[in-house]
Design goal:
This protein has 29 helices and 34 strands. With 866 residues, it is an alpha/beta fold. The strands form 6 sheets. An 8-stranded mixed sheet has the order 3-4-2-1-7-10-11-9, sandwiched between helices. Helix 27 links the parallel strand 26 and strand 27. It is globular, with a radius of gyration of 31 Å. The N and C termini lie far apart (73 Å). The structure holds adenosine-5'-diphosphate (ADP), aspartic acid (ASP) and magnesium ion. The site of magnesium ion has 3 residues, from loops.
Length: 866
Amino acid sequence: MRKKEGPVEVPWVVLKFGGTSVASLAAWRTIAREAAGRARDHRVLVVCSALAGVTDRLEHAVAAARSGDHGADLAAIRAAHAELAAAAGLDPAGPVLEPLRAVLDEAERLLQGVWLTGEAPPRLVARVLAAGELAATRLGVAVLAPLGVEARWLDARQLLESAPRPLDPDERRYLEAAVLPVQAPERLAAAAGDARVALTQGFIARTPDGDTCLLGRGGSDTSASLLAALAGAETLEIWTDVPGLFTADPREVPAARLIRSVGYREARELASLGAKVLHPPCLDPAARHRIPVTIRCTPHPEMAGTRIEGESEAQPAVTAVTCRRGGTLLSLATVTMWDTPGFLARFFAPFEELGISVDLIGTSEAAISVTLDSLPGGVEGRVFKRLLAGLEELGEVRVIHPCAVVSIVGRRIRATLGEIAPALTAFQERPVHLISNSAEDLNLSFVVDEDEGTPLVRRLHDLLFAARGDDPRLGPTWERLRGPPAPAPAAPWWERRRGELLALEADGRPRYVYDLATVRERARRLRERLPSVGRLYYSMKANPHPAILAALHAEGFGIECVSIQEVEAARERLGAGAPLLFTPNFCPVEEYAGAAARGAELTVDGPQLCQDAPALVRGRGVAVRLDPGWGAGHHEKVRTGGPGSKFGLPPEELGALRAAVEAAGGHVVGLHAHLGSGILEPAAWPALARLLASLAAAAGDGLEWIDLGGGLGVPERPGQPELDLDAVEAGLAPIAAALPGIELRLEPGRYVVAEAGVLLVPVTQVRRKSGTVFVGVATGMNSLIRPALYGAWHPIVNLSRHPAAPDLFAQVVGPICESGDVLGRDRWLATPATGDVLLIGNAGAYGHAMASSYNLRPPAEEVVLS
Ligand code: ADP
Ligand code: ASP
Ligand code: MG
């Protein structure tokens, strides 16, 4: 909205820069360039967050200050600012930065107060947390000056005042305050004077009493929108670390696609349901004053971003998949209230009284479920306890926490059910606690256990968006936009042996190549870093190559077998001395007889063996495979625990099975469980060990060992952290110590062989079709089925041109007659020519072992490098 005359006639634009967008000198260069560019024909208000991580640190400092331990946090915050100042050529101790030092000194003084009094009331916490934004803007003004931008520093508390809500608890009043959008350009003009560029803080405002208050975590976006409304700005730009709103969180789903433009209402829905790039309330002020909002990317100012304005189009469409974590599901069941008018009013009364807002709702005549996503004080807090007490008077209350709300977001979702239906297979075997369709028909939401959130989003997104092709509303994928990945830091073995590998490929045939030195190194790593594990068994199904079995046997590993054929192969290759463990599932009883005859230890997960072949059990120690009740792993198909899985005995049936074993003349010698495959969470094995240890007494006096299965994962994508073996050991050590005389066992498969193997594939054709580049290679899903079966991601490089920088964005496909025959979707490669050799990494596990001759194409042969 333009003003009448004088210098204030020039319209305002508001540019908001988030935490990572103010944390480096490179980012400030972009801020300077953008501000100077706009200042030619606009007045520019730059709204800043605290430097990335600083608000978290301040929050932590408040908690630590109760015991006087806030020093480290403050030192880190000071160092982050000093580092940026020094990078900008400023003297951190010089007079220009005096205002910055004053802000941080004040925060320190407030934290000392917390220490002295032992109390941190919300009013004081707000003042401490405000220091992040105050410091960033004080430093920002100083950094901009040498970059050629004279910016006037404004205190946001003079511009934004929260709405008086006397009944709100202090937590809301000071930490999650609401500011009503008003248009008052004169207020901004008075503060900014004749400055062409002004710089102020996001996140903070003033209460009607003049105290500092905050707009809630992530609230700088909302500040910026309120300030845009205040100024009657022409446009609002939100600058962050991704180039727009995507069809899923791009950090979780690299195949997420850019949403080029979207209406306010739908964008607000996305933000509320977990698209963290926008603070949920931030679109309301802009929408009310019809100010277009653009999301821009600070590291890539050349990208257009997402434009948010106007109403959404009317036709039905799915726009994104979102996830919100850390929620609470609360259900009330009552028979006495059945059909009683006013039941809902009674249910909601305590929510109103305690100021708790509910999110999703499902009702029936006798039950009601709601989710809560912001709970003052959390589930352990006083407010929640009072809520439960109030509800328990009405019926039986059940709480599930933490849970995740996974949502399919779009327009007229009910009309898209036909399109969505096939994607709902993503929920197979996953308990869904509540389903809700928003009254405005903008989302279909599913409440699930929290750790199901990320895998579900990935799967749903894959099923909903993989085939969306040329949707004009959608732009490129994140993977494509961010450009080729930085080269991996640690040089893998195949880089050293590149010459040998290329020589092998002179005949142009696809090959799996295994590096035994890497296998041995991984085996030793496990032995050395997991001293609490008494014995390691190699799960040979991952890769039964004889040379690998021999290498691991030589490293002291036993062999875990899941079929009589594996038992036979292991015995034949390794001789009589190799310890074998037979852990089959639904196999014919004869296989047990064969395995026993070859000296393997037997594992059962039901009474059948005792009934059908008691002679096999007589005089023998038998292990029992249990279903821990939960599973884990990289894909639903490899999660082997939980009620829907076919594996294992429910723990409550252990007593009966032990009785059956003993009745047949045997005893229980081991307890076994296996959660799944490709687990990177170190707590998984200690949790399993605790469960099995708790069942040790029920197994009887003959118990000699506890086997925690396998599942040790390797990072799939660059940047994913490795499995922290030290954390596994730290979790297992006390459990092992409490079980004297009982051996802990582990059955790694993938961990020892995945990174030791590569698949080399010659390029057959490179072809562009309707804008998509396909790189065809000589073998496909018949050699490596993991991408097709699990959506697995394997690194792919053009070995012939390595280390040339990747410059081509392509789909790597095989020759099999199935559209699922894709070895790598959306990959950056150094442009290949026919005959170049591509290397597919992490292919040593479940590669050749799962190969087939589909289409009568023989799979890649195997070669071992010793
Ligand atoms: P800032 O500090 O700039 O405010 P935030 O961390 O608050 O940035 O928000 C940006 C982050 O939002 C991105 O890094 C991205 O991981 C996350 N995000 C979650 N969902 C989405 C989505 N649908 N589209 C884009 N980004 C998303
Ligand atoms: N610095 C605040 C936070 O981290 C506000 C923001 O960055 O939006 O929550
Ligand atoms: Mg943010």
